[in-house]
Every structure is written in structure tokens, then in C-alpha cells.
Amino acid sequence: MIRRHCTIATLLAGMLLTALPAAPAVAQDMASLLQEIRESGRQQQRINREREQRFIRERDQQQQRLREARAERDAARRRAEQVRAEFEQGQEQINALKEELNAASADLGRLFTAARSTAGDLREKAQTSPVTAQVPERLEQLGAIADNPALPSMAQLEDLWFLLVQDMTATGRVARFEAPITDIFGNERSAELIRVGDFSAFTADGYVLLPEGGTVAQLLPRQPGGSYTDAAEDFFAAEPGSVQPALIDPSRGRLLEVEADRPTLGERVDQGGVVGYTILAIGAAGLLLAVAQLVYLALVGGRVRRQLDATDQPRDDNPLGRVLGAASDGTGSDDPELLELHLSEAVVKETPRLERFQSLLKLFVAVAPLMGLLGTVTGMILTFQSITLFGTGDPKLMAGGISQALVTTVLGLCVAIPLLFLNSLLGARSRVLVQTLDEESALVLARRLEGQGRA
Questions:
Q1: What is the pTM of this model?
Q2: What is the distance between the alpha carbons of residues 240 and 237, in angstroms, rounded to a whole number?
Q3: Alpha carbon of 376 to those of 123, 282, 369, 373: distances in Å?
Q4: Cα–Cα distance for residue pair 347/435, rounded to 1 Å
Q5: Which of 27, 47, 114, 303 is deepest in the core (most CB within 10 A)?
Q6: On the CB side of 292, how many CA atoms lie within 13 Å of its CA?
Q7: Residue of 404, 308, 423 whose CA lies nearest to 356
């Protein structure tokens, strides 16, 4: 290419020399120019040769580096294959050792699994146990064993054994100790507790419960009444070492909560509302009237029995004496019909006092169940109103109406059934006395007729 440029330059110079007029100065300049062009061509050729040689050297160096890189690659491949073989051999050895370890520690692994399972079961039991109120740190110890994914240490196994023995020992003992409790207002304070085995615990203020997962006992918001409270108070006030009966709750307080939530008799009656109190008022009135009449009939019956022993001496303090007095006053004594009328009239006068209040009690017996039915209907109306307003999502909103419906029905039956028996008893007592009056009046009439027949 350089030669081609030189030739072109030479032609151009020749053309210029042909075109220009001949002159020595111009010829000399063109010769110089030609010489410079030749020198430039030779210099460019030298530069091109040097560049070509440098390219050749660099190509040789690149080929050398390529050969070296390939050699390093091959060496790395050989090392990788060697390392892979060593890794596979090591993995096989590890698997063999694991199999040996599993075979050797099979029994020990089952032991550790059983230890964790036992710790979990004991922790679940201890979360609601009264013993935890006395020994609150055992929950943390059991949790460290049950929740530990690694194998338990020898110290943890010893702790588990100690906690099991401690729980078995505490179950059969009654302990008195100081512990923090939470009252019904949420205030925490220290109090003296008595723990009866693993079943129940109470203070001077009543029974306490251990909430699940907690360590501070809580006083029951509402204490069970009756024998439960009396037993707890007597047991708490008893001297240490003495024998005292106590009520225990195998459910660790859940039955006590149910018993405490059970409404008292006054609360149940109050659930009946106005209808319930009306039924009770009817029952009380009927009971008072029945008792008063029973007392009256008992007194009258005693006087009549005493009068039967002395029929020839009639007294005015009993119905039989008054009937016998009507027969012996001399009015119509000669006429048997008039005497019978007088006796019948005397018996009729005595009968109302002997049978009084029975009609009213019959009315009460009939009205009480009807009032209970009225309360039932009223309670169901309230229940359906609650369902209409709030739906059936919360049963507590319907409890008021249902309670009124059931309580009034029960009250109505509880009033009607005793009044029915009392009314039957009054009727039987009064019939006996009336029958006695009838028999004695008939006996007086028969004796009078017999006396007239003899005359």
C-alpha cells in the first residue's frame, strides 16, 4: 500500500512537472518533495514492519497464555475430581458413622423423647395446679426441657426427676404458705394460702384459682356459697395439725367457678320479674290461709273429740256441742221433723266455718299455673325481641327472657302443687268433722224417736 501511494505521488509530480513551465527552482523543489515522499514511504514501511513484528509477538504471547490457561484448567479439573472423590468418600464415612451412632443411641433417643414428652405433660398440668402458686419457678424449668430441640443435659434430666417427685409429694399434702394473689379488682397483694393437695386453694377471703400459664393466683370474682364457703372458712381457721373436713375440686377450680356462677334462690326468683313475685304473693297468701285453717281444724277436732266423751253435757266451744245444744234447748222436742230441721240447721251453720278458705285455695291452685304461663309467654316475647334487635350471635342477650319464661313456670307449679295438697287436706279434715256432726245429730234424732216410741 505504501508503494502504491508512492507511485501515485510520483505520477502527480510528473504531471505537475509537465504542466508547469520549466524552471530550475521549481525542479529543485519537486526533487526535494520527491525525496521527502520517499523518506516518508521508507519510514512508514519501517513502522509497519515494527507493528507487524509487535503483533506477531503479542500473538505468540496470547497463544502461550492460552496454553497456560488450558493447562491450569486441566489441573483444576483434576483437583476438582480428586476433591469430589474425597468428598464422596468422606460422605460415605459420615453416613456409616451416623448409622452406627443411631444404632448405638436408639434407646437413649427414646429416653430423651420420653423426657421431653413427660416435661410437656407436667408443664400442661402445672399451668393450672395450685402447687405452682407455691413453686412458680417450675414452669420455667419444665419449659426449658420440653421446648429444647437439642438433647437434654444430665442436669435437666435430674431436674425433671426432682419435679416429678415434688409434684407427687405435693399432691398428697396440705400446705400453708405466703404467695402473691390478685383480688377481684386486679390488685396484687401477698396473702396466706392453704393448698389442699393438687386440687384447691383458698385464703381467708375465699377460694383462688391459678390462671392457665400464670404463676399468681387469682381470687374468684364470685365465691360459691353454702357448704363450700363454710368448709373453706372452717378449714382456714382450724389449728395446724388438727383434722378438718374440706371440699376438693378435682378440676382445679373449674367446678368452683361453675358453682359460683350458679344463681342463688333470690336471684332465680328475681329472674321471674313482676309475674314471679305475684305468683309468690299468691302462694304466700294461700299458705297462710291454709295453715290458719289447719290450726283451727286441729283445735276444733280436739274439742269435738272431748265433746264426744260427754255428749250429755254440750258446750258452746265446739261445733258438736252447739249442735247438741240446739237439740236440747226444748224447741220442737216433741216433733221429730222439727227436731231434724233444727239439727240440720245447726249443722249447716257450723259447716261454713269448717270449710272456709277452700274455695279461695282452689282459685289460687288454678291461678298459679296460669300466672306461670303468662310469665312464660312474656319471657318468650322478650326473647324474640332480643333476637330481632341483636340476632342469635350472643346467647347471653336471650338469657333474660328465657330465664323469666322458665322461672315463672316453675314458680307457678311450685305454688299450685303444695296448695292443691293443702286444700285436699283441709277438705278431708272438714269432711270428717261435718260427718261427725251429721252422725251425732242423726244419733240424737234416733234416740229421741226411740224414747217417744217407748212412751
A1: 0.55
A2: 9
A3: 49, 17, 10, 5
A4: 10
A5: 303
A6: 11
A7: 423
